[in-house]
Specification:
By secondary structure, this protein is mainly α. It has one domain.
Length: 73
């Protein structure tokens, strides 16, 4: 496995770890504009997950392009 694929895998695993470790966010405080931590923490992971998935996609795509270019030369 190439280093780029390892980083891509970590980008894809991070949201699962962040959301499955319920004990870390199972609380009310601190609130954000009146929203308990439990809810805004989960909603924060939506754009974070999208960004990490995009990064993983770009990394894998770049690695595939490099591999294809290296084979044809």
């Amino acid at each position: 496995m190439t280093p780029m694929r390892v980083v891509a895998a970590l980008c894809l695993i991070a949201p699962f770890v962040g959301m499955l470790w319920v004990g870390s966010f199972s609380k009310v405080e601190p609130t954000f504009i009146g929203i308990p931590f439990f809810y805004w923490y989960q909603m924060l992971w939506v754009p974070i997950s999208a960004a990490l998935t995009s990064i993983a996609y770009v990394l894998v795509r770049r690695e595939q392009r490099e591999r294809k270019g290296g084979d044809s030369a």
